[in-house]
Automatic annotation (TrEMBL):
SUPFAM superfamilies: Thioredoxin-like. Keywords: Antioxidant, Oxidoreductase, Peroxidase, Redox-active center. PANTHER family: PEROXIREDOXIN, PEROXIREDOXIN-5, MITOCHONDRIAL. It is an enzyme of class 1 (oxidoreductase). Pfam families: Redoxin. It catalyses: a hydroperoxide + 2 glutathione = an alcohol + glutathione disulfide + H2O. This is Glutathione-dependent peroxiredoxin.
């Protein structure tokens, strides 16, 4: 399992791009994790699924509300990662008004969740294997803080906890 001091696993995540530019085309674009994190301080939070109750009512809105404060604390980017496809993550981002605040990164096949060892088996609930709920502060691809939620909880991966860690 991923821990503080580890480098993020190699791989790609996808983001649905709304406006063509900066070398990105409209629609899903793949981003190499190592290249995307190089030289940056990134707040990453992961959750079980788009449009799910806690994720939509608390987790994403908290990061959207704290985006400016996180950036003032030195965070270059905020990523929301979920085992959903880029189309779903794009639609969820529009619904949550994340544009310019939180990058909605798709881990469509769950490869990133599996590589981190932070999976959540929701097969019995009809959702397959998903990501656990967690947050981490990453600097130049290395995990500096890691906040993993207990099953069914939302206590340590919130935006306020991340903001306190980014300021420390």
């Amino acid at each position: 399992m991923l821990k503080v001091g580890d480098k993020l696993p190699a791989g790609t995540l996808q983001e649905f791009i709304e406006v063509e530019g900066n070398g990105c085309s409209l629609g899903p674009n793949s981003f190499d994790i190592e290249k995307a994190t190089a030289g940056k301080k990134i707040a990453i939070f992961a959750l079980p699924g788009a449009f799910t109750p806690t994720c939509s009512a608390q987790h994403v809105p908290g990061y959207v509300q704290q985006a400016e404060a996180l950036k003032a604390a030195g965070v270059d980017e905020i990523w929301c990662v979920s085992v959903n496809d880029a189309f779903v993550m794009g639609a969820w981002g529009r619904d949550q008004k994340t544009a310019g605040k939180v990058r909605m990164m798709a881990d469509g096949s769950g490869a990133f969740a599996q590589a981190t060892g932070l999976t959540l088996d929701l097969v019995a609930r009809g959702m397959g294997v998903r990501s656990q709920r967690y947050s981490m502060l990453v600097e130049d691809g290395v995990v500096k803080t890691l906040n993993i939620e207990a099953p069914g909880k939302f206590e340590v991966s919130d935006a306020n906890t991340m903001l306190a860690q980014a300021k420390a």
